[in-house]
Design a protein that fits this description.
binds zinc ion
């Protein structure tokens, strides 16, 4: 299995596979501009989530186009690096399949299923 190289420049955003949390008190972030626990300004998180959402919209278009597999995969990876969501992970798995990267796609799907199980 090949792991994505972790660049030292991405220190601001952990390559998180978990939900985003408040950078101050680590409370789980629920899409609000101010942390309800410690009052930290979370508009940066909102911008990141918004950007990831926009990437997923572009990704949808690329997936549906059928002939933009490489672009779709790049968008999917970027979106997941910004903000990992189960939806984003499923789209990434789809993009991987479109590019013939089955091993990584199946590993990802397995991971998503595991996470879903542990949530219930
Ligand atoms: Zn907080």
């Amino acid at each position: 299995m090949s792991e994505q190289p972790s660049s030292p420049s991405s220190a601001t955003f952990r390559p998180a596979s978990a939900a985003m949390v408040c950078p101050t008190c680590r409370a789980e972030w629920r899409g609000v501009a101010t942390c309800p626990r410690c009052g930290s300004d979370l508009t940066v998180l909102m911008r990141v989530a918004r950007r990831a959402w926009e990437l997923r919209q572009a990704l949808h278009a690329a997936l549906c186009a059928g002939n933009r597999a490489t672009e779709a995969l790049a968008l999917a990876r970027t979106a997941c690096q910004l903000h990992t969501t189960p939806h984003g992970q499923r789209l990434l798995a789809l993009a991987l399949l479109m590019n013939g990267q089955r091993a990584e796609a199946y590993a990802l799907i397995e991971q998503v299923l595991q996470e879903q199980k542990s949530e219930h």
